[in-house]
Amino acid sequence: MLFNSIQFLIFFIVVTLAYFSLSWRGRWFLLLAASCYFYMVFKPVFILILFGTIVIDYYAGIWIGQAQTKSSKKLLLVLSLISNIGILAFFKYYDFLGDSFNSIFNAAGLRSYVPPLTGLVPQALAQWMVDGAGRVILPIGLSFHTFQAMSYTIEVYRGNQKPERHFGIYALYVMFYPQLVAGPIERPQNMLFQFHSYFKFDWQQAKEGLMQMAFGLFKKLVIADRLAEVVNHVYDNPADQNGLSLVVATLFFAFQIYCDFSGYSDIAIGAARVMGFTLMENFRSPYESASISEFWGRWHISLSTWFRDYVYIPLGGNRNGEFVKYRNQFIVFLISGLWHGASWNYVIWGGLHGTYQVGAALRQKWMKNAGISLPQNRFTHFLGILFTFFLVTIAWVFFRNHMAPVSRSFTILHKMATLSWSDTIHTPFNGIEMWFCVFLIAFLMVKEHFYQRIPTRNTWQFFTLFFLITFLTYFLGVVTDNQFIYFQF
């Protein structure tokens, strides 16, 4: 069920009204049933996979809590992680690894044939699990709820979270519909106690949640989906485009993906807030970052902190010298790239960010040893923001081009680097519409800089702004069947 649909609007109103009309004993069951329905609207059969992982991790958490020795706890944790990662790898990476394996062996003159994933799907399930192109459909939101489930067993193993013995509450922790398919990726310490709590209706909380949902929908329909018209037109046929068109499309994509993903997070966080739940912040004006490390402290915060806590620190973090620190950072970014999808373009995207991060640290070290210091003022800070945005945008080329060969991404970069300012921009929009896109981007940046949250304390101000945003979204929104970009992960 898409957040940008009438179906979700009706669903949200009905579920929220029913939620506040029930006692606690009925609330968790309502939310779990609603979350199951929400997920099954996409593809009913995949609820079985989700249910299987929930059962495994529920009992793993209890058994880890009961285990008497550290070795027993670790064995149970490893088995739980293997089951989660195994399911994720099977659906998301099997064909990618199989094709890569076949290509390497065939190039070496050795015969190799790893059968495609479709050949392993039972015939009885093929009609639900295979799309029209003959590919196995990736269960929606698999990477998100898998990571959320893994964080539970890891925290139980570390002793930071008691095992949850209420099966329904644990299932709701994994399946809570606002953040089920695209995050934020929550931690058990933040969510499980909330599902055991009884929240009375809070008008101020409801106003804040509704306003966040409204602006999230504005970012998706008015900005992201409008920019997507240009981006899709140019990137679908890059060979026919000139350098200037590709530069404009790439810049537009930087804001498209931000508005698309942060818009989803806003709707998810806002929907939960209306019911009294607090989800973690996922974006904090990332394009105002003056360094790559700052960017990753502001972009997809729930994922970057997940990798920090469960990959970077266990690898040794920065505790074993500079080389190990830089190695660990680079590994984390490579894994992050692969987490986004089974494509070498994603791996290169992650590798670029790892290179940026390590390169910045080495540059800072060299400057310190050489006694070089840059002046710290508004101008140098602004230059840092521009340079960081430039680096991030270059990497977005590989991210946006994930379904095509890597060679196409390099062709796009070459065209962008050799552009002629006499080129004519080829887009489906006329000049006025293009300038309107630029205005929307400028408006977004100003709003995000001065108003992280739209004021809601005054009720009349809330109603005025809420209905104004809703009105503008209705009349300016691009009506398509575009899913949120991160649904595919």
Structure description:
68% of the residues lie in helices and 0% in strands. The chain is built from 18 helices and no strands. 38% of the residues are buried.
Task: Give the low-pLDDT segments.
Answer: none
Spatial shape: globular
Mean pLDDT: 89
Secondary-structure-derived class: mainly alpha
Largest beta sheet, briefly?
A: none
Number of helices: 18
Question: What is the percentage of strand-forming residues?
Answer: under 5%
* Helix and strand sequence: HHHHHHHHHHHHHHHHHH
Alpha-carbon distance between the two ends: 16 Å
Number of DSSP-assigned strands: 0
* Overall helicity: 55-70%
Count of spatially separate domains = 2
List keywords for this structure.
mainly alpha; 0% strand; 2 domains; 68% helix; 489 residues; globular
Brief summary of the model shown:
68% of the residues lie in helices and 0% in strands. It is mainly α and 489 residues long.
SSE inventory with pairings:
Blueprint: H1 6-20, H2 24-40, H3 47-66, H4 70-107, H5 123-129, H6 142-158, H7 167-175, H8 188-195, H9 203-235, H10 243-274, H11 292-296, H12 301-312, H13 322-340, H14 344-369, H15 378-400, H16 406-417, H17 431-450, H18 459-476
